[in-house]
Structures are given as C-alpha cells and as structure tokens.
Amino acid sequence: MKFLLEVDMGEDAFEGKAAEELGRILRYWGGNLRHYALTPGDGEAVHDSAYREVGRWSVVER
Origin, by domain of life (predicted)? Predict the structure, then answer.
C-alpha cells in the first residue's frame, strides 16, 4: 500500500507561507489519521487554514 498526500500550494505557495501552511496540514492530518483504518480506498480532502480545499490524502494499492 501507499499513503499519498497531494497539496496544491497555488501560484504563490500559500502567499509565501508554504512552510507554515504545510506544517499545519501535516500536524492536523498526522493527529487525525488514527480515526481511519488506513486501508486502500481511504482518503479525505485536505483544507488550508482558510478552509479552502487544496488537496487530498489517500491510501492506494501499489
């Protein structure tokens, strides 16, 4: 299996704050993953701090 995380940082890399925004996304989902079985097909939309959908995480077969 593979865990995939794809985040679109937009044209300006989160208004020049890519490290902060990506860190927040990773912290949030790192803590939230315990609620999932993490089997192929699991996944959710990923949102930035303004609650805009900016990507997705998923578990897929190899």
Answer: Bacteria
